[in-house]
Amino acid sequence: MENIATDTQVHGYSIIRLIGTFLLLTLSISLLSQSPLSTDSKKARKLYEKADKKYKERDFASAISFLEESVQEDSEFFEAYIRMGSLYNALGNEDSVYSKFKSHVKYAPEPIASVLEKLAFMAQDRGEYEKAQTFIDSFLSRVPERGNADDIQLLLKSIKFSKDQISVATDSIAVTYLPKEVNRFRLQYLPSITIDNASLFYTKRDHVQGDEDIVVSKKIDGRWTPGQSVSPRINSPLNEGACTVSADGRTMIFTSCDDQHSFGSCDLYITKKVGDNWSKPKNLGKPVNSMYWESQPSLSADGRTLYFSSNRSGGFGGRDLWVTKNENGKWKTPVNLGPEINTRRDETTPFIHPNGKQLYFSANGYPGMGGYDLYYSNRLDSNWSAPQNLGYPINTHKDEVAIVISSDGESAFFAKEEQKNFEILDSKIVSIQLSEEVKAVSTSYIVGTVTNVKSNQPLSANVQVVNLETNETIYGSKSDSITGEYYMVLPVGLELAAYVKKKGFIYSDFHFETEVSSLVKPDTINIALQPIEIGESLVLKNIYFELDSYELDDKSISEIQNAFDLLEENPSIVVEISGHTDDIGSTSYNENLSRLRAKAVYEKLKYMGIASDRLEFKGYADTQPLYPNTSESNRQSNRRIEFRVIRTRR
User: Fold this and answer.
1) InterPro entries, alphabetically (predicted)?
2) Which of 77, 155, 184, 635 is deepest in the core (most CB within 10 A)?
């Protein structure tokens, strides 16, 4: 679908090696022509001379025909094989190149060194690793000074890696083709899936050289619906594809090529879904798009971080992976992921898992099984770990690209291709179950609707999830303004606070704790926000104190900030901050502790800029329990800080 010279969405075989080899072989052939031909057959010589004439006339088909006849006369005529191989190379027929060059090596007393080198790479790309080793060993015995060249070192490491992988492989992977409702086109590839695994977006073509469009299939009652155009606002007579969607399926970034409004050959565009309709796509513009090629985007779960592949200047190789963040509605200047990820060759088709911790991508610059392999890297604070090959049998000698992993980390979706001479003849979406070694860290989610408790009308509200250990917002989105639907992403293994808020309403807050060993099951929570009115109250679920202490724990920062925002956005309200305890301890002790804890929140808000005449605080000890103090769980709920609107001011 895509190679170095085209402007579609996915890469194919690089023509650079073909061109370089062709030039080298042309030189080799010219040198051969200065030596006497090896054959004793006059007929074979005559046919070779006819082929040479046709070659000079650029009639390659006739030249090949004469050369085929010549080797029928003399099967060991090695000059004819090298000439045929070079002609097939010019025509892009790699299978015939491989066959003819092998015949040259078989019969030539001293094979051309560049042919041995070419065959080593070709054998690796065909999964013939022992032959690749033989060819490269023969080449290096002739040209030992090439042994330290980067491409030779990479090939040697790849051959060793491939043989080691196959030697230890014990289980095959069951590949499941998605049903015909999904795989209903001539070619389908580059899948992207929502966090609930219910909407699958992908690129399709009706013909090998046809127009690329984005289609979507939805899983309803366990069955996939027929893939259909995502929207007439998105698809056009040009190439649209390589899309990525946020976890909730309402933000999409995709690639469009050759548009008259593009900055480069392929640009990234954004569209948002409101209700059932997608907005008119907008070019992301500078600094994301450039005069170069930008494609293959991958959005973080909340749609605020974008990874993509580009051949823009400032990189380490041909195509590198880049990242940009959306801050205050604007995309920042993209940053190269650096030498930890990018090589002097190509890195493509990034996929950032909903957990935000694991990045999957394809590359041909690391030791691998041949062609493009799939790799993953783990986030290490601000850096990335050394990429790990997903291994055999996920990776093979063929190109493996564009993998997406389900939110639970258990399964993967990608396109399985059939090729001939590196031309893609067929491509279908498949799924596999991942082994323990390469599974992603699980991510769960909450889904539901946000409504006005008074009118039951849907609300567009802000959704925020905070890692309480770092106080970092790890997910932020909005509920749909028409349906009120929202998604909340919950990475496993973290203590999380979540907030749903809208100006003029009391916000809702939540607390989630997960264990790495057990996935928090997806759940549905419908949220009804209460308009701000006198008498309405809110339990601040993410305020924390040490045992028997009134000093605020750092985990309270996000809740304090949201309480501050509530007061800032609604400057007329006056609130009482109340402290409450369980029934353990004396009345005087609990009265004092509850008052001091309420005062601690009061002082913090006052320090942040809220006027003291808008705040009151009081300790109620254990006189207003939410639940009977009959269990530790109930007592924990009763130990709390509350906000209550007590009056308004002019």
Assistant:
1) 6-blade_b-propeller_TolB-like, Bact_OuterMem_StrucFunc, OMP_bac, OmpA-like, OmpA-like_sf, TPR-like_helical_dom_sf, WD40
2) 77
Look at residues 552, 465, 550, 540 and name the one whose alpha carbon lies nearest to residue 508: 540
pLDDT at residue number 417:
75
Neighbours of 569 (CB within 10 A): 15
pLDDT at 31 over 80: no
CA distances from 187 to 175, 190, 206, 398 (A): 18, 10, 6, 17
Rounded CA separation 118/255 (Å): 34
The pairing of beta strand 239-245 with beta strand 251-257 = antiparallel
The residue out of 497, 531, 565 marking a domain boundary is 531
Domain that holds residue 19: 15-168
Both 119 and 248 in a single domain?
A: no
- Beta-bridge partner residues of 329: none
Which residues does 546 contact at the CB level (< 8 Å), separation at least 6? 553
pTM: 0.88
Judge if 513 and 565 occupy the same domain. no
Question: Which sign does the torsion angle of CA 127, 131, 137, 142 carry?
Answer: negative
84/440 Cα distance (integer angstroms):
48
Torsion of CA 382, 387, 388, 393, to 10 degrees: 130
The full length of the chain comes to 650
Question: What is the residue-wise DSSP string for 508-548?
Answer: EEEEEE-BTTBPPPPEE--EEEEEP-TT-EEE-TT--B-TT
